[in-house]
Amino acid sequence: MKMMKTEEAVGHVLCHDITQIIRGVTKGPVFRKGHVITKEDIPVLLSVGKDHVYIWEKDDTLLHEDEAAAILRDICLGTNMHGSEPKEGKIELIADCDGVLTIRRDGLKAVNSLGEMMIATRHGGFPVRKGDKLAGTRIIPLVIKKDKMAAAKEAAGPAPLLDVHPFGQKKAGVVTTGNEVFHGRIEDTFTPVIESKLAEYGAVMAMHTTLADDPAAITAAIQDMLAQGMDMVFCTGGMSVDPDDQTPLAIKNTGACMVSYGAPVLPGAMFLLAYAGDGRPIVGLPGCVMYAKRTIFDLVLPSLIADVPVTAEDLAGLGEGGLCLNCHVCTFPNCGFGK
After folding, report:
1. pTM
2. Is the pLDDT of residue 24 over 70?
3. 131 CA to centre of own chain
4. Cα(207)–Cα(258) distance, rounded to whole angstroms?
5. 248 lies in a domain?
6. What is the pLDDT of residues 46-83, one digit of tens each?
7. Locate the MoaB/Mog domain: which residues (predicted)?
């Protein structure tokens, strides 16, 4: 750093805070370390007794923290979000719509491993609302080497680290199975739960049928719902491993590509996910969805509504954090379930 006459310091970067004290009014920094001095700042600096200021010496190999923060912003900035203006090396990313946040975790980890910079995000795979804060970035030192930021770009890769996938206006078909429901021996309390959870994301149940434990009939019902334009189909009942649980077989017989039958989540171990040839999901929901507050359905449904493919690897990754503690007061998603 070097000392410079205040009148000659326009465009330079302060390397210390400038404090202003007005008795009974204010006492605090009028300019922060890292501030880029403007012509309008000169009278203010002189008024607080600063005929000279200490500034960072210019170096073509360095970037100011705000310039570097803008690079981090651009590394992160994907669809349906915007970044705040840099301030003291900090930037925030804000969602522009309701949807599901996805994160390229490998790139995020690679950037954060470089040191002297950081990107902190909320958990990917979860729903966000318009106006939600998605991430915060920070350059740690006041200035940083240009080649360090070039390394950050390379580590992140060409695609943005973050994206928000908007929720679509989805129409769902529901196939309720089970002899006990079909013959009216018990009330169907499962379907209202599905309708309620779909409504959380603006989706609707547009078709519904109740069938006995007949795999051929279940298969035909699924295929009919897809033929009539349903964006996804959910099957309830018959998802266990008892001999009369026929729903997994019926889904398989549609010709859909099976992603997984079973998932490392409790409640929700007997979950089934498959995709029809055109990419529409067919889901077998275990009985726990009917009575538990939150289950694997709550972890997967937002992605299905937002057309974010769910892979076997994604489901396997839910094992850590996949145990719901069934808290007396449920605070999901502001808890560890699914994270």
Report:
1. 0.84
2. no
3. 13
4. 23
5. yes
6. 888 888 887 877 678 888 888 899 999 999 999 999 99
7. 173-306
